[in-house]
Amino acid sequence: MSAPAPSMYSSQAKAMAEKLGLKMGRANLEEFADTLLSVARANRNILALTSDSRGSGKLGPFAQALPDQIVELGIAEQNLVGVAAGLASAGKTAYAVSPACFLTARALEQIKNDVAYSDQPVKLIGISAGVSYGALGSTHHSLHDFASLRAINNIDIVAPADNLETREVVRQSADRRIPVYIRFGKAPLYDLNATATVFELGKSITLRAGTDIAFIATGETVIHAILAAGALAESGVTSRVISMHTVKPLDVQAVLKAGRQCRAIVTVEEHSVFGGLGEACAAVLMQASISVPFKIAAFPDEHTVTGSQADIFRHYGISMEGLACRAQTLLRQDAQ
Amino acid sequence: MNLSDHDLALKSVAYRRSMLRCIKHAGAGHTGGGLSCIDILNVLYNRILRVSPETFADPGRDRYIQSKGHCVEALYVVLADRGFFPEEKLQTLCQYDSPFVGHPTRAVPGIEHNTGALGHGLSVAVGAAIAGKKDRRDFRVYVLMGDGELAEGSNWEAAMAASHYSLDNLIAIVDHNTLQISGRTRDVCSNEPLDEKFRAFGWQVQSVDGHNFNELTAALAPCDDIRKPRVVIANAVKGKGISFMQDVAKWHHGVPDAAEYAAAMRDLDDAMVHLARTIGAGK
Fold first, then answer.
1. Domain count across chain B
2. Contact with chain A for residue B61, Cβ under 8 A
3. Taking Cα atoms as reference points, which of A130, A127, A104, A315 lies closest to residue A220?
4. ipTM exceeding cut-off 0.90 for this assembly
């Protein structure tokens, strides 16, 4: 019998989720696969491209239902992206699906030249992103992808926080003329937007109102910020929680508002501290002459600790407890 | 349009003149490789490709992707001749805010894909060819690669995919001039024998003289009974047509000085005189 997988959530975090009325959804990966199948059924022009990744991309049912709309390219990510660009050049809506670690590193030159520079509206789907592959080690981690793609002109970067955001970004990306990179993980996630929310690429979603601390989080770290906000509320601290699903183009106005209205800001991302959401927000604030206690909660510049995704998150404080603690430290700094 | 070999020969001399003129004017360009592939482009654009300025937006057009993007000056000259833009525009080559940069971009009418980094064109061509199959269109996709470029591993990923999908609407051409920037390809990092490699990857292979219009035409023409991707290995000479540039690696991106430019133009004048004589002799 194998050991049970360590949970992403402590028992206190689970209790907080329950208190906040959050329901556990499924993995964004599964939501993606089902959504892609449903949009592709309605539009034969949509193709899914895989690099021996149909299993890890949960695209088995897609391949069975729409065998003419899946293009398998084998373990060859550079060719995957080049072929996607060629398909797009001939009018196809191409979703290139591959583990984020390989897609955005090995095929980076194809993304830069054949997709972004050549203006081909390819949809790059980075599966099992961040440290989703946890214990498989750093070859399988993508903690560089925001940084490398942010420096490339003409590509949007999206990290959906829950099933709703995933569904919407996959649907909305189909008709977009701008290339897009969408990355998500494979662990089940709480649903965050129980109420109807208008999802728009490039426009963040404020999930909770507050003026003491602002959490600006992206992707699958947003839930931890929500839970931290719940924990902080118990000691009278109000938290604004912003789901910055689109890392580029950044919702600059939301960042500026948070900087002007809140006492401190914590940014949260499943990415290196370098070149990601945190530095993007810091640059916006600095250039607007807004000075506010500010902390980037992300992965430090070191060989990543070994362990499962849950272990790694906990180690680096991407957790309810870790984020609440960072917020308190910043607020103390603000009070001094 | 039925152009004789003699007509094409005249065009090639004119193309070489225009190409050298714009490289000289810009003070930059890939001279040797452009001279090497210009006869291939001549045959493609004047005999093979079903594409014109009027049909360039047509989803059924033939596609040409120049993977060896550095030889863009040759492509610019041929596209100008085919009416995609006025040739005078080439005077802006490599100048501030000009679309005519040193590698192909879609900002220039007639160009299908932005290239420049090597080892990209074949994958993109595979994608376009798969789209053609899916949509049951009869267009063909042609892609030109350099022999030195074949050291990029991505080409072989694409070569595998092309034969896996039996892309008989894809025709690759290798400008096999055996030279790259540092010297002989076989000395830099040998990739011979190219024909056997492509055969092993499931391609139909044909080797031709890269400066022989008849051979190029026969090899590049549509062929309905081969159900696999085709590669035409065009044995060419880098710097072809200019006596002191031929088969000399330093002309990879060499720009002629005033005396060299004058000497090059004299070579092309001589070629023109020779062509006039051969037509006079009924050839």
1. 1
2. no
3. A130
4. yes
